[in-house]
Design goal:
InterPro entries: BBP2
Strand order of the largest sheet: 1-2-3-4-5-6-7-8-9-10-11-14-15-16-17-20
Strand content: over 45%
Number of helices: 5
Shape: globular
Keywords: Membrane, Transmembrane, Transmembrane helix
Order of helices and strands: HHEEEHEEHEEEEEEEHEEEEEEEE
Helix content: 10-25%
Largest sheet: 16 strands, antiparallel, barrel
Protein name: Outer membrane protein
Structural class: mainly beta
Low-confidence stretches: 1-15, 17-23, 25-43
Length: 420
């Protein structure tokens, strides 16, 4: 029989060893269970290096183009006006000084399913043409809008159908905003009194090889910041009788009155016929007619003053009368040799009711114009031009010498432009 006192020390030793063994087993199980997780959550330096994002290379479309244009001029006005700026025009407006008429930089793209153009501009013509933009709105972009020549994007929504949105060139008139695209340097009255630019949405479709058309929803008649709550509408029909004979019809309709006045609907029709007789000679004719609803009408009712002396003899009412204006222009261009070109322009602007041009004179603005331009083409992509312009009006409306006016205006100018 064993002694109880001798057995107790042995049991204590066994228990102590068993406790140490159990603790080691627990540590081993914990390590095996959680070590893989810790290994996944703590990546190695090589894994961290490989996980860094790889910068992507931006590939520009093959059709993207960058370019620019500079158009400078000097004009001598034979009227010798005291003022340094000419009226009734937006082109070559400064008298007797060297200046930049238009300079711009551009980026444009033309792909199979999308297109667009962004161009910024500066120059005296820019300041003159955008002077009528609204400047009273608080959050509009009128402070920078004049420097945006075009800013639009377009998408192809059908086989021959495109939709463009933004700011784009106006479609009315034969001559372009860019002088180098025209046979004359200055613009006809017909172009200075139609939109050079528009803001809105344009839908264009090519019906056949000969017929194409446009529909436009616009803020208004050459304005980006709208002056009323109404939208205007424009359209174009272009038909090619042949590659040398082209007919273009442009239309516009819209309210041109601010919100605090009665609506004054403007209707406009522009017709252009281009005839390219040969590689050396071309002839273009344009005729425009416009009509705008009168602002108000006064009805003679003498009994009003007898009833209330504050009323007078006339009562103001809404008008149903449309005031009209017209202008016609003919261009003829002849390339004497591959290096020299001679071009002529004859024009007539008829606005006796002063709808578009307010002169404050008896006959309004009724003026004829005659222009001769000689171009030297050897500097391509540059163009050197010499031009003489003579204009005569029914009333004395042109600035003349010391604070006087004259029925005629004539001037010489030299201009050099270059595209790059």
């Amino acid at each position: 029989m064993l002694n109880q006192m001798s057995v107790l020390p042995f049991v204590k030793v066994i228990c102590r060893d068993l406790s140490k063994f159990s603790l080691n087993i627990v540590v081993l199980v914990f390590s095996v269970t959680f070590w893989p997780i810790a290994a996944e959550e703590t990546p190695s330096k090589e894994n961290v290096r490989s996980a860094e994002p790889i910068p992507k290379t931006i590939v520009l479309p093959n059709s993207i183009q960058f370019g620019g244009f500079i158009d400078s001029y000097y004009m001598h006005n034979r009227n010798l006006p005291k003022d340094t700026e000419r009226n009734f025009t937006t082109q070559a407006v400064r008298n007797g000084e060297f200046n930049v008429n238009l300079a711009y930089v551009e980026a444009k793209v033309e792909e199979k399913n999308y297109r667009g153009r962004l161009a910024f501009q500066w120059g005296t013509s820019v300041n003159a043409n955008y002077a009528a933009e609204v400047t009273t709105e608080k959050y509009s972009n009128q402070n920078s809008v004049k420097n945006i020549q075009e800013a639009y994007t377009g998408f192809k929504i059908g086989k021959d159908t495109w939709i463009d949105a933004g700011i784009f060139f106006g479609n009315i008139g034969y001559e372009s905003w860019i002088s180098q695209n025209n046979v004359n340097y200055t613009r006809a009255f017909a172009l200075d009194y139609v939109p050079y630019y528009s803001s809105g949405v344009r839908l264009s479709h090519k019906f056949s090889e000969k017929l194409s058309g446009q529909l436009q929803v616009l803020n208004g008649w050459q304005n980006i910041t709208d002056n009323n709550k109404d939208k205007s509408f424009g359209s174009q029909i272009k038909y090619l009788f042949s590659q040398n004979l082209i007919l273009t019809l442009n239309q516009f309709v819209g309210n041109e009155a601010p919100n605090n006045e009665r609506k004054q609907m403007r209707l406009y029709q522009n017709t252009i016929l281009e005839w390219v007789l040969s590689d050396r000679f071309s002839l273009v004719g344009q005729f425009d007619v416009g009509a705008q609803k009168a602002k108000q009408n006064f009805v003679y009712e003498p009994w009003l003053s007898a009833y209330d002396p504050n009323h007078g003899d006339y009562r103001e009412t809404a008008s149903h009368v449309y005031r009209q204006w017209y202008h016609g222009t003919i261009w003829a261009s002849f390339k004497i040799t591959p290096e020299y070109r001679l071009s002529f322009r004859i024009e007539r602007f008829y606005d006796p009711l002063q709808v578009m041009v307010n002169t404050g004179t008896r006959n309004g603005f009724m003026s004829n114009g005659y222009t001769t331009t000689f171009d030297i083409l050897t500097y391509d992509p540059g163009l050197l031009r010499f031009e003489y312009v003579y204009r005569r009006s029914a009333d004395s409306v042109f600035a003349y010498r010391d604070n006087q006016t004259s029925k005629k205006e004539d001037f010489f100018l030299v201009a050099f432009s270059m595209k790059f």
